[in-house]
Structure formats: structure tokens, C-alpha cells
Design a protein that fits this description.
alpha+beta
Length: 68
């Protein structure tokens, strides 16, 4: 059916979480030695990225810093 009335059965997608409610890692990582695509001095704050680096073999290339 062609109609100008939107389909009321469509499920709305939830809005993204506000920045204050977004998932946050308790740590940030500062790169000490360049590896993969990371450069010396780069700060990693993305929780998934932090977890991936900490679980991998390059964990010795970063400095783990607690977030306040």
C-alpha cells in the first residue's frame, strides 16, 4: 500500500546513551612503543580497544593509567 502515513508497527530504535552514561573503561592506555597502527604517545580510551590491547601480546608496549 502506498500511503503518506508512516507504518505505526515499526519499532523505534533506542537513542544512543548520553556521554555520561556511555560505557567507560576504568583505564586509559598510553603507547610507550609503537605497535600495529598505534604511535608513541597516543592515548587509547575506547573500552573495547583498551580491553583488546590488554588481552593481547602487545600489553608491554603501553602504560596503563587509571581514570579519575
Amino acid at each position: 500500500m502506498d500511503s503518506d502515513i508512516p507504518d505505526s508497527t515499526a519499532v523505534a530504535t533506542p537513542a544512543p546513551a548520553p556521554a555520561s552514561k556511555a560505557k567507560k573503561s576504568p583505564f586509559s592506555l598510553t603507547v610507550k612503543f609503537a605497535f600495529a597502527d598505534y604511535q608513541v604517545g597516543q592515548v587509547l580510551t575506547d573500552p573495547d580497544e583498551v580491553a583488546s590491547v590488554l588481552a593481547g601480546e602487545c600489553v608491554g608496549n603501553v602504560l596503563k593509567v587509571a581514570n579519575a
